[in-house]
UniProtKB/TrEMBL annotation:
This is Membrane protein. It is a multi-pass membrane protein. It comes from Kaistella jeonii. The lineage of its organism: Bacteria, Pseudomonadati, Bacteroidota, Flavobacteriia, Flavobacteriales. It comes from the Bacteria. Residues 50-199 form the Peptidase S54 rhomboid domain. Keywords: Membrane, Transmembrane, Transmembrane helix.
Length: 255
């Protein structure tokens, strides 16, 4: 039963994205991408190419390991439960959130200075998918999709802290290298896409008991089984012939 319901494409898409991330990481450390090459550089025209390449670049093994597992799980959930709109959600969320990151000025929240930063990693996609999957189930109010929302909230609920600068709740010896701008952009875009696509893709299936005014004898299996097992109870009952005035004509005359 589980194998029949499992989508092979969902596993394939998730594995393909994670494989591409590791290939990019390997090429990066072989010298194909040096410095800020391939990274998103906010408000810098040369940083626009990072919209396409940055998800495949990571600063360390810890960084890529931290993104690989959630990327695989979230992409799998996306294409398993939203197969008809999965590609739209994935690519739209990826490019729009990355472009939004490029538009955000990298301002130091304490000094107000604009910093030159290079943003790499797939965390923007992670946040986009996580927030889409959670809010899509809420907006659709579908029991199956709400279960997916709860799973995402259970395992990735702590992601909510990543949408604000780490310096606000931690005393760091140096500025954090975590891009809260990517996280915030992904979260906002994920919520918007979930709302826009709330009536697309997965149909909102309603069960018969959700229609209190609906009843069909054909859908009542217990009633149908009773009729099959007790056919004698449904024979035509003898009925009284309708009286006809002319049949009592002689009696009327005698009176």
């Amino acid at each position: 039963m589980f194998k029949e319901s499992l989508s092979f494409k969902a596993v394939l898409y998730a594995a393909a994205m994670v494989s591409a991330m590791w290939i990019g990481f390997l090429l990066q450390h072989l010298g194909w991408f040096e410095g800020c090459s391939g990274a998103i550089i906010p408000l810098n025209p040369s940083g626009l190419k990072g919209i396409f390449f940055s998800p495949f670049l990571h600063g360390s093994l810890e960084h890529i390991f931290g993104n690989s597992v959630p990327i695989f799980v979230l992409i799998f959930l996306l294409f398993q439960f939203y197969p008809f709109i999965g590609k739209k959600v994935f690519f739209l969320g990826w490019f729009v959130s990355a472009f939004l990151v490029w538009l955000l000025p990298p301002i130091d929240i304490f000094t107000g200075d604009i910093n030159h930063v290079c943003i790499i990693g797939a965390s923007g996609i992670v946040y986009t998918l996580a927030f889409f999957l959670f809010f899509s189930g809420v907006f659709r109010w579908n029991m199956k999709l709400l279960t997916v929302s709860l799973v995402v909230a259970l395992y990735y609920g702590s992601l909510i802290w990543g949408v604000v600068p780490e310096e606000l709740f931690s005393h760091l010896p140096e500025p954090s290298r975590i891009s809260w701008q990517s996280h915030l952009s992904g979260a906002v875009v994920g919520i918007i896409i979930a709302f826009v696509f709330r009536k697309n893709g997965e149909k909102n299936i309603r069960f018969i008991w959700e229609f209190p005014n609906y009843y069909s004898e054909k859908d009542d299996k217990l009633w149908q089984e009773y009729k099959e097992n007790h056919p004698d109870d449904f024979l035509e009952l003898p009925y009284r012939k309708k009286e006809d005035l002319w049949d009592h004509l002689d009696e009327i005359r005698k009176k």
